[in-house]
Amino acid sequence: MKIAIVILNWNGKALLEQFLPSVITYSQEAEIYIADNASTDNSIEFLKSKYPSIKIIKNIENGGYAKGYNDALKHIDSDIFCLLNNDVEVTQNWLVPIIKTFDENPKTAIIQPKLLDFKNREFFEYAGAAGGFIDKFGYPYCRGRIFDTVEKDNGQYDDKAEVFWASGACFFIRSHIFKKLNGFDEAFFAHMEEIDLCWRAKNLGYNAMYVGTSAIYHVGGATLNNSNPKKTYLNFRNSLFTITKNAKGNLLFIILFRLILDGVASLKFLFERKPKHILAILNAHFSFYKRLGILLKQRKLIEKKEKYYVKLSIVYDYFVKRKKFFNS
């Protein structure tokens, strides 16, 4: 089984200097590629001088995560793609349980390892923790992380489990499934495009797995941190894109209820005195309405829509019932 580790880079020379050595040291089972999104720093020069054996794919523009990977992966021949952020430290033998899981589970299209916090190493990392789910209204949450509550890693998720989505920070996918799905939806640019891809794979009858015996450490927020209104905009907009395209059931009800919940989120930002984030949510909705016709056409192309949620509303469970941890 050929594995290609593909690290998307945009002006990330400092991150490559810090994190690439662990990937090279502990990834003997794979070929390593750097997909550069038209960096304007000296990332390419650094790679050519320090790591001349690493293959570099130069994208002609910074099309974000979605287009960046779509463009780069066209040039790679491999059975498995591992899409790895440039702010990730990997660990010894991290690929072994991943390869074994793919071998043993032909219907498994996508895998995520355990994501731990590079800066606070005893805790899970926000971006994906121990694998992701969404509720009926499209709000994502994880085993090990619900909204801003992140669990300490006490071995409670040292297992294998089917999940709904895998984190784009470290995203393994069978190459033929990626191609069958036509890759990421480039309208997303960045954030939640991996959830959309996992959802489309599920609608084709494939599943996503979490493998807790493989662990990595992720910095998170190296490109956009949680305090950046652009991240708020992309998360809210792309969540609406995703549920409109993929959700089974009465779409009008789901969207209307979602609008109410997003209004509540705006009130939360108002109380926190974050007016730029309120504006980001409004702009996210305007962008969604503008693209609604295209999204509805995409929805019609998905012939089979599977049930996608376990919890009706993670918002209600977390904020009203005060259930802060996944196991509760």
Question: Explain this structure to me?
Answer:
The chain has helices at 13-25, 43-50, 64-73, 96-104, 175-180, 193-203, 229-246, 251-271, 275-301, 314-319; strands at 3-9, 30-37, 55-59, 80-84, 88-90, 108-117, 132-134, 140-142, 145-146, 149-150, 160-163, 170-174, 207-218. By secondary structure, it is an alpha/beta fold. It has two domains: 3-218, Spore Coat Polysaccharide Biosynthesis Protein SpsA, Chain A, CATH 3.90.550.10; 229-310, no CATH class. The strands form three sheets. Strands 1, 2, 3, 4, 5, 6, 11, 12 and 13 form a nine-stranded mixed beta sheet that branches. A two-stranded antiparallel ribbon has the order 7-8. A two-stranded antiparallel sheet has the order 9-10. α8 packs antiparallel against α9 (275-301).
Summarize this structure briefly:
By secondary structure, the protein is α/β, with parallel strands linked by helices.
Short key terms for the protein model shown above:
alpha/beta; two-stranded antiparallel sheet; 13 strands; 328 residues; 10 helices; globular; Spore Coat Polysaccharide Biosynthesis Protein SpsA, Chain A; 2 domains
Topology of this protein?
Blueprint: E1 3-9, H1 13-25, E2 30-37, H2 43-50, E3 55-59, H3 64-73, E4 80-84, E5 88-90, H4 96-104, E6 108-117, E7 132-134, E8 140-142, E9 145-146, E10 149-150, E11 160-163, E12 170-174, H5 175-180, H6 193-203, E13 207-218, H7 229-246, H8 251-271, H9 275-301, H10 314-319
